[in-house]
Design brief:
heterodimer, A: mainly alpha, two-stranded antiparallel ribbon, 10 helices, 2 strands, 68% helix, B: alpha/beta, six-stranded mixed sheet, four-stranded antiparallel sheet, 12 helices, 13 strands, 36% helix
């Protein structure tokens, strides 16, 4: 069997295992509840709103603006936590339950198993963001309709163009989340402890955010993982500013590659002992 | 590759800091063997098995399965090999059948087509759709056997397969192992249930504090025990004197009105004739052989080995 097919089979089972566990839905439900609660709050309270954040002033103009605003709010800790809940657990839980020895004494090598788990963790993060955006658009459209979106440059873009911008924004927004997933997966492999991995990954994400707002960190700010959560702003400018997007691509690639590679090496060499 | 032994370990060592869990273990399991791997709890059996399966890295030495080292060749070295270490573990939130499907997809070949047959074999077909989280210990052990047999193994490594089973479950497990070996599967059976080993195995290794203190055929091990005899007579004093005079009889001592001694069969035959000629009646002359348990305890609780072990650790 080819290695790609073997990884695909493992990936499919990793997804099946996630779908069979209730806690998987906890993160997804949270991702869908936040935009719903957000819209309800703004409908109930017709005055005021998130005026200080991108697209916040125009959130009541169209349902399309809602996911962009919620992306900002959830980047601080909600999405990192949701991502870490699965990525931090995906190896540690197998160590704890003793199932790692069960799957590592079959015909798949360790590298393939690690790849399947990494892909499943990334998939979960992406699905959570897409689920949030979908619910946000639906809830926002129910509340305020599906109208043209006001870009960050102040120009109006058609709803269809707005959907395209949302898809592109999600595409770049998930990159730092994948960085957090990679870090959580690394911790999960090294610590063999789900709680430590989830909390550790969340602390890492919060530290990145904190460094970004501390005075004197201006020179490193463009290269912090937290900063890359704002890269999608480039798409919302007319004309589009690709500089933050390009930077997010390579900066996130580093944040993804380093822990992923380290976790991979540890996973290949680690002893699968009694837990 | 055809003449390579299913299991061969050479100088296998595993250290955890200053503790030597496995200390230069050399083992050879030949084709067709039902090989008993015996030792007290914590002696190093499971650690050895983990190294054989490539789950943990030896500190020194190597383990090969059919001539292939899992550390070098990875999962390829496990072709034709199956089994479990400690209790078999499954995903509790999946059904038994789905667990087997998952494991079949982790295998090459046509494992999936064997799932129903294996569930039937271990009598879990009716419970196959139930979550493993609701299985009893015995059911999980049986599912572990089914998961192993999906791989159509030539070598089966079983770590305490009967532990925690009720008497009927233990009997079924023994029957299954007997049946599998009848089909030509080599079995390495780690156990501390000596009756089980005595019943099933043709060769054994005994490990104590990480060291092999015996490896060889079970028959030879039992034969190494000195043959002892018990003699009952209505005239114990005269019988005692005759025993003393009989060549080949030694370690003679009276216990509870009977005589106990060690001798080979020829000496015992000569003694019985001598007793008859002297008109000394015999009400019982009973041979006694040391059980595997006696030998096991003798080998694993011997003070001489303690001193060696103290040096090793």
């Amino acid at each position: 069997m080819s290695s790609a097919l073997a990884v695909a089979r493992i990936y499919r089972w990793e997804i099946a295992k996630l779908l069979a566990q209730k806690r998987t839905y906890l993160g997804l439900v949270a991702a869908m509840l936040v935009p719903t609660a957000f819209v309800v709050a703004l409908v109930v309270n017709t005055k005021g709103g998130p005026n200080d954040i991108p697209l916040g002033r125009t959130i009541r103009d169209t349902g399309l603006a809602v996911p962009f605003v919620v992306l900002f709010f959830m980047s601080i800790w909600a999405f990192p936590l949701i991502t870490a809940l699965v990525a931090g657990d995906i190896v540690a839980a197998e160590s704890h339950n003793g199932t790692l020895k069960t799957i590592l004494t079959r015909s798949r090598n360790r590298g393939q198993v690690f790849a399947g788990k990494a892909l499943a963790s990334i998939t979960y993060a992406i699905v959570a963001v897409v689920a949030m955006a979908t619910v946000a658009v639906v809830a926002g459209t129910i509340a305020w309709g599906f109208h043209p979106l006001t870009s960050l440059s102040g120009t109006k873009v058609s709803p269809a163009h707005g959907v395209g911008l949302l898809a592109a924004s999600i595409g770049v927004y998930v990159l730092p989340l994948i960085g957090i997933a990679a870090f959580a997966l690394f911790l999960s492999t090294v610590t063999r402890n789900s709680a430590a991995s989830v909390v550790g990954a969340l602390m890492f994400a919060l530290l990145m955010q904190l460094l970004g707002v501390l005075p004197g960190t201006e020179s490193i700010r463009p290269y912090l993982l937290g900063t890359q959560f704002d890269a999608w702003h480039g798409f919302l400018r007319i004309p589009a500013d690709f500089a933050p997007v390009t930077r997010a691509l390579w900066v996130c690639a580093l944040y993804i590659a380093v822990p992923l590679l380290a976790g991979y090496v540890v996973f290949l060499r680690r002893d699968v002992d009694s837990e | 590759m055809s003449d390579t032994p299913p299991v061969a370990t050479r100088g296998l060592v595993k250290r955890y800091g200053s503790i030597v869990a496995v200390d230069h273990v050399d083992l050879t399991v030949e084709r067709g063997d039902v090989f008993g791997y015996l030792g007290p709890n914590g002696a190093g059996k499971t650690t050895s098995l983990r190294m054989m399966l490539g789950l943990i890295r030896p500190s020194a030495g190597k383990a090969e399965l059919f001539g292939r080292d899992p550390l070098v060749e990875g999962a390829k070295a496990l072709e034709g090999v199956a089994g479990f270490v400690e209790a078999p573990r499954f995903y509790p939130y999946l059904s038994g059948r789905r667990n087997l499907r998952l494991l079949a997809d982790y295998d090459d070949g046509d494992s999936r087509s064997l799932i129903e047959e294996m569930l039937e074999l271990v009598e879990l077909r009716d419970r196959g759709n139930d979550r493993v989280g609701g299985y009893s210990h015995g059911m999980r052990q049986r599912l572990g056997i089914a998961a192993s047999l999906l791989r159509r193994p030539r070598l089966l490594l079983l770590d305490e397969p009967a532990t925690g089973l009720d008497p009927a479950g233990m009997r079924d497990m023994r029957d299954l192992v007997r049946r599998l070996t009848g089909e030509g599967i080599t079995v390495l059976l780690s156990s501390h249930l000596l009756a089980e080993v005595e019943e099933l195995c043709n060769r054994v290794a005994i490990i104590r504090k990480g060291r092999i203190v015996y490896e060889g055929s079970l028959e030879e091990l039992l034969a190494t025990a000195s043959s002892g005899y018990r003699l009952k007579s209505p005239h114990p004093e005269r019988a005692y004197v005759l025993c003393l005079q009989q060549a080949g009889v030694h370690s003679l001592h009276p216990v509870d009105g009977e005589l106990r001694f060690q001798a080979d069969e020829a000496a015992v035959a000569a003694l019985s004739i001598a007793l008859g000629q002297a008109h000394v009646g015999v009400t019982a002359l009973i041979p006694e052989r040391a059980s595997l348990e006696d030998l096991f305890l003798g080998l694993t609780e011997h003070p001489a080995t303690d001193e060696q072990d103290a040096v090793a650790v």
